[in-house]
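User: Hello! My lab partner asked me to get a predicted holo structure for this protein. The small molecule is fe (ii) ion, SMILES included with the sequence. Please write out the structure tokens.
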Amino acid sequence: MTTVLTNPDITDDERRARLYSGQVLVYSASPESLALVQHARDLITELFGGRDPQTAQFEMDVEDFAALLARLKPTFIHHPESKERIREMLASFGCDQDQTYFDVPRLRTSTSNDYLTSGISYAFHPHRDTWYSAPFCQLNWWIPIYPVVPENVMAFHPRYWGDSVRNGSRRYNYYEWTEISRPAAAAHIKTDTREQPKPEEPVQLDPQVRVVPEVGGVMLFSGNQLHSTVPNTSGRTRYSIDFRTVNLDDVRSRREAPNFDSECTGTTLRDFLRTNDFERMPEEAALEYEGMVTADV
Ligand SMILES: [Fe+2]
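Assistant: Hello! Below are the structure tokens for the protein in complex with fe (ii) ion.
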């Protein structure tokens, strides 16, 4: 069963418990989420000049478009206002500012008609973030910047909540990936040769669940959900914001989603910043996550 709750009136503790059990939550746009969206729109508009960023792909060479994204994405990630807006949004969600840590927000794009599907605008094959060294208590927040439709969002593959997919996570080490592979993303315009954990058996993409939030609406899900980028046939480039959170109490007590099939090494926990002062995750907490994980089922 896949449960999608909209605007549930629950505490953050209850919300996390529901997400760890595989439920998906959707919240309406709020002043705080719209402020984050507006910040992203300001950066996008400035970069694209007079062009409509949702259709500029049809007027530009793919190399030029990729070059624009290669400037836009790091600007958004590192912009101090991005962090401030996230902090305000998390506060509005009732997340404990001392216990909730987040990683820097990403600006994602999905171009239409297979225009640009690798490198800087990677089309994600079915995966769990936990194949990429994410902790099992990681929660993903996903917010559309412009209107989205079922043909350009992301999909969940709920058949695999509770079931394993043979995958390449056993060869994935987070430190190798960040030191060697990631800076090369912008160079991979047409093909992507970097090794990422992928399914190693056919994945049944259906049944699938596609949630279509309003602009500034917030979709929340466990990083352990099997999810993918929908092939974009909408005729518009999709722009969305996502970021991840963990709760330090949950990190320490291993209150988390079950492991179905992840076997990677390393941890992304050191990337997470405390909401109230942007201090890094305590090293002793991250150290506990260094080893190879083993599946619970
Ligand atoms: Fe993901």
